[in-house]
Request: fold
Amino acid sequence: MAHTEAGTTADAPPQDRPTRTPGSGPIRRRRLSDAQLAWLLLVPALVVLVTFTHYPVVSAAWASVHDAAGDPTVANYQRMLDDPVFWRVLRNNAWFALGTVPTSMALGLAMAYWVNQRFRGRGVLRLAYFTPAILPMVAIASIWLFFYSPGIGPISQLVTALGFEDRNWLGDRTTVLPAIIITNIWKEAGFLMIFFLAGLQNIPPELDEAAQIEGASRWYRFRRVTLPLLAPTTVFVLIIAFTNAFKTVDFLFIMTAGGPNNASNLLLYYIYEVAFTFWNRPYAATLTVVLVTVLLAASLAQLRLFDRRVHYR
Amino acid sequence: MSASSGPVLSASFDSRLARGVERSAAWLLGLLWLAPLLYAFWAAFHPREFATRFDLTAPWTLANIVEVWNAVPFGRYYLNTVLLVSGILIAQLVIGCLAAYAFARFEFRGREVVFAFVLVQLMLIPDVLIVQNFRTMSQLGLVDTITAIGLPYVASAFCIFLLRQSFRSIPVELVEAAEVEGASRLQVLWKVYVPIARPTLVAFGLVSVSGNWNNFLWPLVITSSVETRPLTVGLAVFITPETGVNWTVLSAATVIVIAPLLAVFLLFQRQFVQSFLRSGIK
Reply:
């Protein structure tokens, strides 16, 4: 049906009408104006979004500055500033982001660059890179638990074969954070690859070909042609990777439970613990406010950077 | 002549060498990325004594899978996950089509503001608001129901955003043709807009299904019984310090959880990658 309609209208003289106000035709009388109908169509989405996204933010902020009797208080924030676990968790999360984001972005870019070329088996390779990204983190984490297990795990076997001292990777305060960072890089890189791949496919191949004819080396072309053209994608990916570092905690439940002694605890996991293990809702709400602030700050940064991108184009 | 052909030859040799090194690195990385999965399948289908010994002559077995399947109500977890994922997807698409249609087709006061208001959810996914949402669910009396797991996700800003993009590209002539035939505004949505946006619907569908299949934190918080738990939570409940040592059983459980998703992914891998690419560009 749609196709025949498209065929008949294609013959119609082209007219340049930016926005037509539909519903102005005299064919039918309508009870609702366009604006009224639009609002009505938005009701289901807005009800759900307000209830489970906007209202929780406001209610968390409200709960964080009120005590049980409903009187204003800063006690929760005072407690947070005095809470060594909070600072530990924040520091861990910063290191976690710093350890994950640049490396997984670099790997994701390399992966995208590789699978964007034509060679035999590139489909298989793309699949290998991307598979971790679509599998459930808890399932993946249980395999990594084995990889890190002291004595029998492949990592311990490799380390002892190389003549180094074996460790309990996830049970040692000094190695647990790097260990979960590696797992997260493994999970993230293939996901970020997809965005870079989309960016690469948007670059006209003529640019690279022109540089090739000029005799520029592959590395030079990558650095001076491809990379600058990928700049908007890179900014976008940076924000995604950064915020993911604050949203991804599933594997902690399986691998470390935030331990030992909070050495691998992250902000969202700590919020979970405070709310559902220690049952301290007002304090959990206070911590939620911090997390929301971090995420909103990142999205504002993204908006600013993307405004600039629009000007460049 | 010969003087100039020398450097050119060596340059192309260099670049071929560089390409060879690069490609080897690419394959090595691919192998590293597959290693955990390959191990899971190895351990799941081999007797326990081969959990850490890699011997190509080792006998294959289904005993681990059977053991785990009998010990854990994975059948029920599967059912819960399928109900959850399909329920969310249907609701997301219906709610998303209605909202995107409103944004894409009609002029009304405050449209841009409301759209920005919707997009907030791109950043503040319900996963980070578990404390407050748990309270809301207990006030609604929905704790420990599949509805409660899905409800915060049924309106997706991402879905609305993608559909609005593709709705806006629909030529006004198509709409006019349908109106001449007497279609109402809602009929135009279902007969003109939705069919044209089908690739976007499929793309979003795959992203949504894999995302919700994998979701863990919110389902963990809001469920407490076998009748409601999705697969991911079921697996996490099964993994305790005792099972953590039995790698073959653990791997079998992992394989049971990821196998259907992996199978669908392998079957539709082109569409999957294209879908993620499509939704990633925007």
User: Anything to note?
Assistant: Residues 84-115 of chain A form the longest helix (32 residues). Chain A touches chain B through 106 residues (CB under 8 Å). Chain A has one domain: 75-312. Confidence is low (pLDDT under 50) at residues 1-20 of chain A.
